[in-house]
């Protein structure tokens, strides 16, 4: 696996021609191998931005370039060979086994959609099952798994796609603390470029190289976690009082939140 650069230029999106913008012009550059966290309150536009990055929404204005190529100038299949997404919506392929779902990640790399699974594909599928600790579940049907187990299956499927850019929408949803930490550790260590939305600002600060803070569909900060997640910007975006303190044991910075009175 290799990582891609991501360049987003003046990107905006509205659901229809005459509708108001859901995402106002947004620009940023992400170096290969970096982890970008998209944060902001409910309805800020996080999912809409991610959908623009994996070529689900066509931009109203602006461009998304992966390794210097506009994703709308490439065939969908070529984009799927470079960009994989793990979405909030859980899949409904309940009759498929975990192994079969992860194998679906190989689809964009096969010749024709019914191409046979080769030895290299099997290696990649097995490696993805290993990475997410799913070997024991490989023969189980998706419908019999817990929400957290399903979430790990979807991450494994995305890795089997061998993307250069991985998009994750709230990847820690449904996961208990240990599996949250495991998925975040995996994200940290993957040799890929990653863009992930996260609700937990402290987790985001711990795992991301860069943070994009969205508020009402507008980017209001892009940079390192400590530059972007200030008490002032968090208070403004989330309408809470925020306090940033240094934890005495680890020395890490930690945000706490309180309702404004
Ligand atoms: N297809 C659509 N048609 C109309 N409005 C939409 C559409 N998609 C998103 N929106 C609106 O755009 C805004 C941003 O939605 P989006 O899902 O991107 O926010 P979010 O930051 O991911 O929110 P959450 O944290 O609640 O998941 C919301 O007000 C939403 O209702």
UniProtKB/TrEMBL annotation:
GO terms for molecular function: ATP binding; ATP hydrolysis activity. Keywords: ATP-binding, Nucleotide-binding, Transport. Residues 6-241 form the ABC transporter domain. InterPro entries: AAA+_ATPase, ABC_transporter-like_ATP-bd, ABC_transporter-like_CS, P-loop_NTPase. Pfam families: ABC_tran. Belongs to the ABC transporter superfamily. This is Iron complex transport system ATP-binding protein. It comes from Cognatiyoonia sediminum.
């Amino acid at each position: 696996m290799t990582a891609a650069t991501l360049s987003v230029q003046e990107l905006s999106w509205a659901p229809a021609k005459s509708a108001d913008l859901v995402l106002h012009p947004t620009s940023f550059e992400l170096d290969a191998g970096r982890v970008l966290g998209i944060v902001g309150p409910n309805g800020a536009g996080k999912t809409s931005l991610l959908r623009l990055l994996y070529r689900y929404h066509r931009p109203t204005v602006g461009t998304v370039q992966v390794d210097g190529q506009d994703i709308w100038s490439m065939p969908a299949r070529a984009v799927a060979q470079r960009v994989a997404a793990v979405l909030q919506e859980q899949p409904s392929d309940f009759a498929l086994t975990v192994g079969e779902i992860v194998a679906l990640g190989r689809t964009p790399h096969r010749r024709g959609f019914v191409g046979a699974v080769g030895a290299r594909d099997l290696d990649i599928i097995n490696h993805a099952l290993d990475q997410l600790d799913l070997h024991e579940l490989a023969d189980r049907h998706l419908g019999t798994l817990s929400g957290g187990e399903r979430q790990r299956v979807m991450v494994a499927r995305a890795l089997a796609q061998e993307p250069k850019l991985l998009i994750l929408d709230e990847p820690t949803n449904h996961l208990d603390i240990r599996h949250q930490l495991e998925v975040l550790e995996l994200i940290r260590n993957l040799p890929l470029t990653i863009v992930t939305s996260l609700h937990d600002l402290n987790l985001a600060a711990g795992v991301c190289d860069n943070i994009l803070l969205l508020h009402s569909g507008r980017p209001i900060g892009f940079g390192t976690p400590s530059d972007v997640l200030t008490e002032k910007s968090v208070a403004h975006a989330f309408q809470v009082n925020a306090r940033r303190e240094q934890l005495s044991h680890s020395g890490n910075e930690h945000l706490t939140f309180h309702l404004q009175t």
